């Protein structure tokens, strides 16, 4: 063999990743695609890459030096299983198969187990950054064994984005840990995008600013605490005019947000882990709500405030929205890291949350300055029970407190939906409460289902004879 690494699947992600690999010193890249025209097109367009093409899986395996390393970049699902089966026919024990697609982490756990039995190593690696990231440097979240990481680490480090001198890749944990963390990354991305969209809506409808004016506000915000790729591209989108109509582009885009399912996976997984990721859930539901035009048409005449005008003093209101956005974002990230903690506990993955924050600083969609603060928080206290209780975040939540409440009240009063802002505030007030009405819920559960309760003043488990004389019995 003459190539030290191979890529299977040469659609946009695979061909860009292959070009990224080929551009790094010391790499020779074998390429294979089910439909051979794509392989030929890639070779024609990029002779500089020095790709080693293969037209069969046998040829692909023969072109790779041992232990063989192949990265699969095909449509997640049945395609991934099909390619794994083909590679297992031609690979040998000790070789490494990497799935760089957006696999659902339970599939990765299943595949890793099955492939390991053949002696071949299997690594599920989450790759974030879209086509641009794949070409110039993505954030990479590999799972799999320590043995695979020893071989794979240098290759992945060579192609990953670099943030503050460090490559945006770390060995996340065994089997599905990498795809799990990639899933939560996408969930956090949903929440971040929804929070930014709510901030835009509140400023637009609340103060009458135009999209171009709001673009300038976001550009200004991007020089402070909120500095991030998503804030930056938001300003770009809001600034964009539509050539055909002359209107702001955001006014001609149909207001129905799509989804490819990773937000829903994050929420479904959180529900089974018992982790409240309310920000991610509201963001996912907000996309669903937007995409039911028939229901929206039927509901359009329901009563509510007509012409929202939130603020007489608009500069102050805009600053309030900025503070509320930052506070809600802290909650959303805190919830996402809580899901990573719970997932790691459930699957016995030894995930370092600070290392995750660091590899998200470059290459991926949620890249932001803010992630340095998260890394600092976990460096200072590795067993932090909840991210938002770290001093930097506590201080920010204290600073944003009054503004956050004013914005949520103003939104409710004006009839402007702010589900992520308001659910984040409710979560915040819930988690910090001395006493919760959960006591009443537990009483109700004991009444109709004899589910028992514990007492604040003594140990033990109790039930009240609700349909009898209502005395308390210890059970
Ligand atoms: P697609 O997800 O559109 O998949 C197309 C590729 O899959 C083609 O190479 C196709 O081969 C191959 N393929 C399929 Br479909 N079924 C196959 C099978 N049974 N056997 C062999 N090959 C098969 O490509 P993409 O948009 O480049 O994404 C690749 C992966 O990266 C996906 O898992 C995606 O979720 C993930 N990802 C994408 C992004 C992004 O921004 N697009 C970001 C991060 C991760 P053919 O040419 O013969 O049809």
From TrEMBL:
Annotated metabolic or biological route of this protein: Carbohydrate degradation; pentose phosphate pathway; D-ribulose 5-phosphate from D-glucose 6-phosphate (oxidative stage): step 3/3
6-phosphogluconate dehydrogenase C-terminal domain residues: 178-467
InterPro entries: 6-PGluconate_DH-like_C_sf (IPR008927), 6PGD_dom2 (IPR013328), 6PGDH_C (IPR006114), 6PGDH_Gnd/GntZ (IPR006113), 6PGDH_NADP-bd (IPR006115), NAD(P)-bd_dom_sf (IPR036291), Pgluconate_DH (IPR006183)
Function: Catalyzes the oxidative decarboxylation of 6-phosphogluconate to ribulose 5-phosphate and CO(2), with concomitant reduction of NADP to NADPH.
Similarity comment text for this entry: Belongs to the 6-phosphogluconate dehydrogenase family.
Keyword entries, A-Z: Gluconate utilization, NADP, Oxidoreductase, Pentose shunt
Subunit record text: Homodimer.
Signal sequence range: none
Record organism: Nocardiopsis sediminis
Reactions catalysed according to its record: 6-phospho-D-gluconate + NADP(+) = D-ribulose 5-phosphate + CO2 + NADPH
Keyword Nuclease among record annotations: no
Matches recorded under NCBIfam families: gnd (TIGR00873), PRK09287.1 (NF006765)
Protein name as annotated: 6-phosphogluconate dehydrogenase, decarboxylating
The encoding gene: gndA
GO molecular function, one term: phosphogluconate dehydrogenase (decarboxylating) activity
Pfam annotation, one family: NAD_binding_2
EC number annotated for this UniProt entry: 1.1.1.44
